[in-house]
UniProtKB/TrEMBL annotation:
Species this protein is from: Micromonospora humidisoli
Keyword RNA-binding: no
Keywords assigned: Membrane, Transmembrane, Transmembrane helix
Protein name: Metallophosphoesterase
Superkingdom of origin: Bacteria
Chain segments carrying region Disordered: 1-26, 551-573
InterPro entries: Metallo-depent_PP-like
Chain ranges passing through the membrane: 39-62, 371-391, 403-422, 434-456, 468-494
């Protein structure tokens, strides 16, 4: 394999020597391998909610895309020595080390043999969004994304692969500050052994045989800014009827438009106003954001979701079997003609996805111990309030150490209702969210009544004050916390069957297995072959690599990873 055409290659700075680690501790690695994000941890729930709210309220003020008009409007070119190109796509990758590095390790190997196909390392890597979780702090990028990828490919091989990245909603939480610093900087344009090839948060790359790769930044689904549209207007001047386009977008809005009809509007506007007038054809839309592999096939293009780069697994059994794109009920008056797309492949399969859902009962308390502590605390306070009313105690001590019952009941019901997310649900499902949320809250009230009855029949309650409160915190709290966690697990399983709290059902489990990425080949004759690579189980046991060559991965799995194809190769012409 010879060198890849790179417009910046002759100006790229020399590779900095990287000392190979002598151990697996953070001082040797240069970063701290992180555990998977506990998504239902109380403080994380609060902080993520605040970040999301701030992004919604002040996203326009934090938007740096208008300022990017001052940056170079570079249009890249990627062509291999044989006139073709190998291209990788990975998304939703910056989570726990084991899952993230398992995928990064496979991406970095000189060659993979997958179901009899020999697939060399790609010359171009596309990161499709959410390169870090849960926030876009620079330290999080170092520990959860850049560090693992540098460990996988420490320095550039003689044929330096190039990297292009699309920002997702988590990359936007700081207004793209850290994202631009990592992927768009003008100096030290290296990301581990990959060279960074873009000059803005969006990009266009000319590929072999009339193919083009376009990466969009729609600021978490809000809109496409004028400088970005002007940039792609310039790109469009180089397109023609023989051009074929791979469009990388931050989210699979073709699926999300089933419940939110306006979700696909930005992509449809881009295709309709930028691509279509040139006569070019968008043959492949690819996205992450939903953490699984799914492919919808239509009359003119393929719609692929591949968000299996490292984040917790998202279910596939809830996916609609057929979608209409753009949806007929969109409010856009100039939408493109609606076409039907059928779900033809998914990983994991629907049966396995359902089985994963049942794991909520044991994974929820294990992955999110703080969540059980929160529930135990709230139920203990609710029990003390109920016990005070039931025993007709009105003493000063009881009023000081118990929360008024009416307030606690309100907190319980409202908390359960808003946990079901009715304000953000689409109109078609609004009532369903409220009913399930209130039913969940009433179930917790019923549990509190049963817990109070049991507590009043135990000797602790009759001890001199404040010993009952101490006993409640030490004895009642942990027990009721575990029981309440199982109640939440049961609710999530039932609600998930109705399409409510599906994300929480799987986020609470933090499933690291069932990862995926795409390896694509563009032949000199223009044939595009997509190899969807699946990893059933990630590695949790790493060792220093005995191969000390500069480009060899620092860590290797003690038990080899066994990638396979999620479905047979998909061929586009």
């Amino acid at each position: 394999m010879g060198p890849v055409t790179d417009p910046d290659a002759e100006h790229a700075p020399g590779e900095r020597a990287v000392r190979r680690p002598r151990g697996t501790d953070p001082v040797e690695l240069g970063f701290t391998p992180r555990k998977p994000v506990p998504w239902l941890a109380p403080f994380l729930l609060i902080s993520t909610g605040i970040r999301t709210l701030l992004a919604m309220l002040f996203g326009a003020y934090l938007d740096k895309r208008e300022l990017q008009n001052a940056l170079d409007a570079r249009i890249g070119t990627q062509v291999g020595p044989d006139g073709g190109l190998w291209l990788d796509y990975v998304a939703d990758l910056g989570d726990g080390f084991d899952a993230t590095y398992s995928v990064a390790y496979l991406l970095a190997q000189p060659e993979l043999t997958v179901d009899g196909h020999r697939l060399p390392r790609a010359q171009t890597l596309v990161m499709g969004g959410d390169q870090v979780y849960p926030s876009a702090a620079y330290e999080a990028y170092e520990d959860r994304c850049k560090g693992p990828y540098q460990a996988a490919l420490p320095v550039a091989p003689p044929q330096r692969p190039m990297l292009f990245a699309v920002p997702g909603n988590h990359d936007w939480y700081d207004g793209l500050t850290a994202f631009l610093r990592l992927f768009v900087r003008s100096r030290d344009r290296n990301f581990g052994g990959w060279g960074t090839g873009q000059s803005r948060s969006y990009f266009a790359v000319e590929l072999p045989a009339g193919w083009w790769l376009l990466g969009l930044d729609d600021q978490s689904g809000s809109y496409l800014d004028d400088p970005q549209l002007s940039y792609f207007d310039e790109v469009a001047r180089r397109l023609g009827p023989e051009s074929r386009v791979i469009l990388a977008v931050p989210a699979p809005t073709w699926v999300k438009s089933v419940d939110h009809p306006t979700a696909y509007d930005s992509i449809d506007y881009f295709v309709r106003t930028i691509i279509a007038p040139t006569g070019a054809h968008v043959r492949l839309l690819v996205s992450g954001d939903l953490h699984h592999y799914a492919r919808y096939a239509g009359p003119e293009r393929q719609l692929i979701t591949c968000g299996g780069g490292g984040a917790y697994l998202y279910p596939t059994h809830t996916l609609p079997e057929r979608i209409e794109v753009p949806p007929k009920d969109t409010l856009s008056r100039r939408a493109s003609r609606t076409r039907a797309y059928d779900l033809v492949a998914r990983f994991p399969d629907a049966a396995r996805s359902r089985r994963y859902g049942w794991g909520i009962f044991h994974r929820l308390p294990r992955r999110n111990p703080g969540f059980g502590t929160l529930l135990g605390t709230l139920h203990t306070l609710l029990m003390l309030a109920m016990a005070g009313v039931a025993a007709n105690r009105t003493g000063t001590e009881q009023r000081l150490f118990s929360v008024p019952l009416v307030i606690m009941l309100g907190v319980t019901l409202l908390g359960a209702a808003f946990f079901a997310q009715p304000p953000s649900a689409g109109g078609k499902r609004h009532v369903r969210h409220w009913l399930l949320g209130i039913g969940h809250g009433l179930a917790h009230v019923g549990l509190a009544v049963a817990g109070t009855w049991a507590w009043l029949h135990l000797p602790f309650y009759h001890w001199p004050w404040p010993l009952p409160a101490v006993a409640a915190a030490v004895v009642y709290g942990p027990v009721i916390g575990l029981v309440a966690t199982q109640l939440v697990a049961g609710y999530l399983l039932v609600a998930g069957a109705f399409g409510v709290n599906v994300n929480e059902l799987f986020a609470g489990q933090g499933i690291e297995d069932s990862k995926s990425f795409l390896r694509m080949r563009i032949d000199p004759d223009g044939t595009l072959t997509v190899y969807p690579i699946a990893v059933d189980r990630v590695c949790h046991d790493w060792q220093l690599n005995p191969d000390q060559s500069p480009t060899a991965s620092w860590l290797t799995p003690r038990t080899p990873l066994t990638p396979r194809l999620a479905e047979p190769p998909v061929t586009l012409t």
